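Hi support team,

I submitted a single chain yesterday and got back a structure, but I'm not sure I'm reading the token output correctly. Could someone confirm the output below corresponds to the sequence I sent? I've pasted both exactly as they appear in my results page.

Thanks,
R.
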Amino acid sequence: MHSARDRIEYEPWLEELETAAERLDLSTEARSCAVDLFLADVPASDRSKRAVLAASLYAGSLVAGEGRTQGAVAEAADVSRLSIQSRWKELLEAAGLEPPRW
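Hi R., thanks for writing in. Yes, this is the structure output for that exact sequence:
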């Protein structure tokens, strides 16, 4: 659970996350998971925030069983696919979840 202060501080980023989630037609469960993952690991650098936002969306879609491709999430969040590929597993592990081993 995250504080209201976190949500207020990162509101512009959460709005971007919501916009990208809308483009991906993600469920409320996937969006909620993505928000939790993002808020649990918000980087200090604004430059890195968009990549973590995208990785959170990708991981949230997997957790909710709605798996979107890294390419689709990258396009919706305006990042490279590599930005997602290099971060999503560590986000899940940091949250105490085990990433899939395909």
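A quick pointer for reading it: The chain has a mean pLDDT of 90. Let us know if anything else looks off.

Best,
Support desk
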